[in-house]
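User: What would this chain look like folded?
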Amino acid sequence: MLKIGLGIMVAGMVACSKMDNTNPNVPSNVNPGVILPQVIYNTSNTMVNNAFELNNELIQYTCMNNTFTEVQRFKLLPANSNGLWALYNRMRDLNDIIAMGEKTTEMANYKAIASVVKTYIFSILTDTYGDIPFSEAGLGASGNVYMAKYDQQQDIYVQMLENLKQDAERLKTATALLYGGDPVYNGNLIRWQKFANSLRLRLLMRASAKLPAAVTEIQTMLSNPQQFPVMESNDDNFVYRYSGGLPDANPLSPNYVRDFDFKYKSVSAFIVDSLKKLNDSRLLQYARPTNASANTANPVYVGLPNALPVTESANYNGGYNYQSYLGTRFQSNTEPAIWMTYAEVLFLKTEAAQKGYYSGNAKELYESAIKASFAYWGAPFTDNYLTQAGVNYDGSLARIMLQKFYALFFTGMEAWTEYRRTGYPLLIAGPTNVNDGKIPNRIPYPLSEQSLNRTNYTEAAKRMGNDNMNHRMWWQP
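Assistant: Here's the prediction, encoded as structure tokens.
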């Protein structure tokens, strides 16, 4: 709790104090060990909230069962952008850390870490909107740039991949964190290096259909694990673990979100029915039994079909008490925010092997990925799960991506992004959808850009099909 409370207090004092005249964007009396945990905390909150409100509804993990059904109906408006666009508020702090890291050799590791976090944020933003402010983002007074231009997504990807490659290399020789401030890996720079390489693998796979060099880079990375280490166990997961004491508590906990609000967030029929059919114990983590059966000898799980008419949704299966809400763990003060997991890395390696980008054994990698997911969620597992129809490895991308979909539950916006990239799993839009049955490809830009950065917004919007939510990402096949 103190790490966040003190971060807010110090940041507040800095905001009111006089800045160094030579660089007004860099505080003169705050070290990166104070700023970094605040950035990671705020970014984690943003990702949890948008998983809850956007990703999970778009991709049929969950569905609202009352009048607030716009997202699952694919009625996306500029107002839906505000939460994720707020990630830009972290850029100035990250630029400050990078500037501090350039001053002395002892601070260089903070520069590398801040750059990795910055790339993670940019990847979320560009994969959500397409073309975005990138090269001029967060410069403000230090660069005399108050209306940032929008870079094209392909150019952003090329630079993000190069940045991650350089940052991972820097982290090989980085010294210990002089001021601490690492709430994820506690100063273990090898794990930061693994995260940088794992994130790079994620982005390389995403770009592999459109960027010729990406396949070669994937081959090089995965064939040289000593030079390019990636996550090797769940201990390497990038998850932010909330302490549970206010304000450092999961943003969906009762401190911030009423249990009343969870009453209207049912788990989708697609997830519940699929996992029940496979006797998949992750269901007991993702969902709770219906209220009517919760305290009986035979708890029942019933998912809600997405985008039903409002009255039909509210009364489905007899009403709210007969539908399964999100698992109680997601209301815990200490439920971690997931950025990336070992299971995801194994699924990326599985896909690379399946496509011939990598000489690894796709079946073994696939099965290891499933086991890693069960272990992360604390779900009981037996090897019989892997041999049943619908799970046993059949060499198809559809089978890989269905299991990856299950594993990515509540991992930011990743499931939606992977669906757009691969077309899997096969999802059927609900009957009240307003987009001809198509899951949107992007979120419209926020209204603030239309008013505060209109010239650059207008130019980018034209490239994005006049800011159309169905305009395809550059990396989509």
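The first strand starts at residue 62 and ends at 64. If you want, I can go into more detail on any region.
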